[in-house]
Specification:
The complex is a heterodimer of chains A (about 250) and B (about 190).
Chain A lengths: L1 H22 L2 H4 L1 H23 L4 H27 L4 H28 L3 H4 L2 H25 L6 H26 L2 H25 L10 H33 L1
Chain B lengths: L3 H30 L1 H13 L5 H8 L2 H8 L3 H37 L7 H28 L5 H32 L4
Helix pairs in contact in B: 3-7, 5-6, 5-7, 6-7
The chains are: A mainly alpha (about 250), B mainly alpha (about 190).
């Protein structure tokens, strides 16, 4: 009963998130994130339909949609980087290098593992692969957040919400995907309740932070340049007025 | 494959980083929302300067201590030691704050630059970390041994701080001079 309520609650929150995204035109600012939410919403409905009408296909549908979800999730990380650092070319360059380093590290680790045990790829379950991809995402997000933190990049409410919610979701997924195969039957029940409940809480974070559009603070230099321009413009127009006054006086005399 | 502990460590690192970031965002929210306050803070930061080596040398010098000891007044000697230690600790705190301000201004300037060099940034960060470590060690040692025994160390730290601080300011000025060229992309 509780599981069903959480499940329906998630669908309601996702619907609300999509409706608010369209109403506030937030989807145009964060297209990949809203594609991700739309994907998760459709996935939930598809799984529900398959679970009740074709239960024999449920497992296959579950893991296919889960895999696709991980890939769309990687694009969400890229969107956080793109939107958050659009006005900061210096930090964006650092982020590119840092993310490149994280991915090279993950790729090297996978290569070394394959070299040591060429069969691991075949015997790994879909869950193992998802866990590896989620850990790589977790490290990429941690590297990005460290960079944002270090360079004091100001965030708007919306982007902060996307990053915070997605970061929490990834951390929770890594813990869940690691503990479920290890935990006993008793814990299975607990984890299968906790996982959707934490996702429900994350949707709540997204809903609060993305309820309406909040402008992102612009870097100080841009404001300074504009301010300087306004100052120069007002001084110039004052001097022009004075010059015009002298000219009129000169013509009259 | 990544082991259980590796996975937990990854999740924990992410959670801790997120927590630290949210806390830092919340604490700096007010100052960011008010540009006037931010500008004021920046101009205040520009006014903060590290002490001259002469003052530092005087502060950590044993000459005053010898003079007070010569008066043979234990009360006065204790008071002098307490006061001098407090001033020395205050100097370390001010110096540490100065280093942080210079570094913050450098980061604010460098985050907008397109020609950022990772090697240079890493070197600056390592120097910053070294300076902060110096300040931390000095703070502990002054508390334990008193300022008079640390004259050499303090002067060395002061010279190093001055050199790195000046270097950072020059680097920042050069970056600001290049800024109008880069600002076209904004």
């Amino acid at each position: 009963m509780l599981g069903q309520s959480i499940w329906w609650g998630c669908i309601v929150f996702e619907t609300l998130l999509l409706v608010r995204g369209v109403a506030g035109r937030l989807w145009a600012r964060y297209p990949i994130f809203y594609t991700y939410i739309l994907f998760v919403w459709l996935q939930s409905l598809l799984r529900f339909f398959v679970f009740h009408s074709r239960p024999q296909y449920y497992s296959a549908i579950y893991w296919i949609t889960e895999g696709l979800g991980v890939l769309v999730g990687c694009a969400v990380v890229f969107e956080i980087y793109r939107v958050g650092l659009a006005s900061y070319p210096g930090t964006a360059r650092m982020a590119r290098n840092l993310l490149g380093f994280v991915f090279v590290l993950a790729f090297t680790k996978a290569l070394v593992d394959t070299w040591n045990d060429p069969q691991w790829w075949l015997i790994s379950t879909t869950m193992d692969l998802e866990r590896v991809l989620r850990i790589v995402q977790a490290l990429a997000i941690a590297a990005l957040v460290l960079l944002f933190f270090f360079y004091s990049i100001p965030f708007g409410r919306n982007l902060r919400g996307v990053l915070l919610g997605y970061g929490l979701f990834i951390a929770e997924s890594v813990i869940w995907l690691t503990l479920v195969p290890l935990a006993g039957e008793k814990f299975h029940h607990f984890w299968y309740q906790l996982h959707p409940a934490s996702y429900f809480a994350i949707l709540g974070v997204w809903l609060v932070q993305l309820w309406s559009y909040a402008p992102k603070p612009e870097p100080k230099t841009a404001v300074c340049l504009e301010h300087e321009y306004q100052k120069i413009a007002s001084v110039t127009s004052q001097r022009l007025r004075e010059a015009r006054g002298y000219l009129v006086k000169a013509v009259r005399s | 494959m990544i082991g259980v502990w590796g996975a937990f460590a990854g999740a924990l690192v992410l959670l801790l980083v997120l927590l630290a970031w949210v806390r830092a965002e919340a604490s700096s929210k007010d100052s960011r929302s008010d540009w006037g306050a931010a500008d004021q803070e920046q101009s205040e930061g520009e006014n903060v300067e590290a002490c001259s080596p002469e003052i530092v040398s005087q502060l950590f010098s044993a000459a005053d201590s010898k003079f007070i000891s010569g008066l043979e007044s234990p009360g006065l000697e204790n008071l002098f030691r307490r006061e001098r230690t407090a001033v020395a600790l205050h100097w370390v705190q001010e110096t540490s704050a100065f280093i942080s301000k210079v570094m913050r201004r450098h980061l604010e300037a460098s985050r907008l630059r397109a020609d950022l060099e990772i090697a240079t940034e890493a070197r600056i960060f390592l120097q910053y970390a070294r300076l902060k470590l110096y300040c931390g060690i000095l703070f502990v040692l002054i508390g334990l041994l008193g300022p008079q025994r640390l004259a050499g160390t303090a002067l060395h730290a002061e010279r190093f701080i001055q050199r790195v601080g000046e270097g950072l300011v020059e680097f920042q000025s050069a970056a600001q001079l290049r800024e109008p060229e880069g600002s076209e992309s904004l």
